[in-house]
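Summary for the steering committee. One of the milestones for this cycle was to obtain a three-dimensional model of the protein with nicotinamide-adenine-dinucleotide bound, which we needed before selecting residues for the alanine scan. The sequence and ligand used are listed below.
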Amino acid sequence: MDKLFVDLGEKSYDIIISDSFLHLPKCLEEINVQKKILIVTDSNVAELYGDEVNTIFQNNGYDSHIYIFDAGEENKTMDTILGICRACMEHKMDRKSMIVALGGGVVGDMAGFAAAIYMRGIDFIQIPTTLLSQSDSSVGGKTGIDFMDGKNILGAFHQPKLVYMNVTTLKTLPKEQFVSGMGEVIKHGIISDSCFFEYLEKNVENIKELDSETLINMDKTNCSIKADVVIKDERETGLRANLNFGHTIGHAIESAYNFKMTHGECVGLGMIGASFIALNRGYITNDTLHRIEHILKMYGFKTKVKLPSLDVVFEFMQKDKKKLDGKLKFVLPVSIGEVVQKNDVIKEEIFAALEYISQQEK
Ligand SMILES: NC(=O)c1ccc[n+]([C@@H]2O[C@H](COP(=O)([O-])OP(=O)(O)OC[C@H]3O[C@@H](n4cnc5c(N)ncnc54)[C@H](O)[C@@H]3O)[C@@H](O)[C@H]2O)c1
């Protein structure tokens, strides 16, 4: 078991990284949780881990109940939030009760948002079960739901009391979901830690084979990078925007493909696009671009894609909610381990990048 401390003053919390759920009761004792708990999970995760986790709570004297919604981003809606809140009322949860998010990023975002608004805010903990949620969404306190065709339009910053990850849950994760999560992990190496990037280059086989010790090491460094950014800029007024590396183009590709490609896969292509812009500006060398492409390939990413139309992707980019004063913000690498934020990237540079990633594989 490994542990990280996210230092956010009175909102601080631990991240526990383990290869089982065994340490969960002890960790709950340490945060002094009241006995009434609602476990929020989706239909897939409930089947795999719902009973196991609920039994741990019940065997340790907690009055726990489960709320299950149908898996999928399409259910990340206000209706589901109201369902969770209704369950909280039915189980007579009060301001001292707690919500447990057991699942991927969709569960975490919704359970966290329900916890942020129920009785003006109650505690919640995250038990992330996808690589994306273990490497990214469970750390940082962003919660929310999709609204009127927009992703994460309604939400709140609400930090968890504890994040408990059991890396063995990744063994049941579909392969494409694992690859999607690796997109965020590789991103963290590129934006701020060249040693971590090298670790990912050297440990491809162990990571792909889901070796627990390697995954614990990977999750620990990965989460410390994300946590460090969050500690310095909790509300995304500056540095936290570096986490959007690959997302300006990536989100637009995701929308152009009507969310048929995974988020991580699109971020991977977005990172290549942004790196190509950086290459043309002389920020990075050809070698650095090829290293980024190579690591993505090794982890199973497509590095080229047939885009429906460059204009369509560009149009989607104009809807980016991270636009500032009407200008798109790009995060561009200057080396492996360092990026800069730029809002002066012009249309021609973006089209050149889109053309580069839309070339067919030779
Ligand atoms: N809050 C943040 O900072 C933040 C950051 C990035 C992404 N997100 C959000 O996260 C969401 C995506 O998260 P995700 O990729 O985890 O998607 P997800 O929660 O939909 O999980 C993907 C699929 O895997 C299944 N699953 C989960 N754990 C499993 C396991 N151990 N074994 C087998 N199947 C399992 C789920 O049921 C689902 O079908 C998006 O809604 C995105 O907006 C939030």
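Key point for the committee: The chain has 14 helices and eleven strands.
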